[in-house]
Amino acid sequence: MSVEITAVPVPADLLDVGDHPFVQMATVFNQAVMFDIGLDHLRWEPAEMLPDWHDESYRMHRGFLARDDSGRPVGALQLVAPCEDGATEIEFDVAVLPDARDGHIERQLLERLEHEARALGRSALQTYSIHRIDTDHQRLPSPSGFGSVPIDHHTRLFLDAGFTLAQVERNSRLDMTESHEGVRAMLDEAIRFAGPDYRIVTFSPPTPPLLRESFAFVLSRMSTDVPAGGLTITEETWDAERVDVRDARIAAAGLTVSVAAVEHLPSGRIVAYNDLGIGADRSRPTSQWGTLVVRGHRGHRLGTIVKCANILRWRELVPESPFISTFNAEENRPMLDVNERIGFTPLTVAGAWERRL
Ligand SMILES: CC(C)(COP(=O)(O)OP(=O)(O)OC[C@H]1O[C@@H](n2cnc3c(N)ncnc32)[C@H](O)[C@@H]1OP(=O)(O)O)[C@@H](O)C(=O)NCCC(=O)NCCS
User: Fold this and answer.
1) pLDDT-derived band of residue 269, with 50, 70 and 90 as boundaries?
2) Which of 116, 173, 261, 291 lies deepest, with the highest CB count within 10 Å?
């Protein structure tokens, strides 16, 4: 099948835009993912994406649609690249509708990706594939030795296109409709274990001014401290101003976010955090964003504290949301230990892929 690939314009807003290519791009992704995993918790919401696309201070976004002869959108490509000096990576998502998957459209979209990456001076092409956990395909093991992905349509596509499996992530869910007495007990025990130097601080954006600078530091560590497997990751630069920009984007996207952090009382700095987010439809699943404890403060159960404190706060704030979805590298035992103890169970599996130009 031959297709025409065109750049997706970014609308100023989504009022009266009708079937805009920006919305069509999200629809292609949503239909493809629904077919692949039979679940819609990873659904893209155009209104929630738009503020990120408008502000290119820290990350640039590009979108492309592949249309067949009749003009029907059958494939989509999204590119996201960090703007830090010297960054070489470009992350992408590629999707083709189930009834148009003959391999050709995927390949044409990957050719377009390569063209755009070269034009932007990027040499590390990265993506994530998402898979069901209950398939009977043969498996490709993670280079970390932890986890594997099924050798299905997506795995073959990326292997054939010269990508290497860089890491395997477990996507897990925590049922939010059940009692959380166990989470409360874990939190109480962890607070006792951590001792009097640490205090829980919770907030929803905007970030309190006194905390912005140390919150910026913990956010920046997500790019350096999370196990990255074989992925090329540029260290992100964060300051109080970038926290403000992030808070403004969260507000413009209509998201509800909760942060549970730990303040180290002797220094007055945030040394651990966890944040959860959801869009305007609060009956949807919740996304777990980041969890991090600053090196030097690990092993005091601060990871357990921020995670449990935020789950309990979320239950009060957004009781309609049925579950929390999180992604963790299969080799990230400290994080998986905490999550498994809380009650997270596997939902889908993701493969991280990289190809160097
Ligand atoms: C994951 C992380 C938040 C855990 O923080 P923490 O404060 O050390 O967590 P806890 O003290 O609550 O430890 C939880 C459990 O992890 C396990 N654990 C901690 N450090 C470990 C290590 N180095 N190796 C193996 N297991 C470890 C222990 O079983 C511990 O249980 P314990 O309380 O019985 O000792 C922290 O390691 C971190 O910030 N890592 C980098 C960022 C990251 O990977 N975030 C998750 C992204 S998905």
Assistant:
1) very high
2) 261
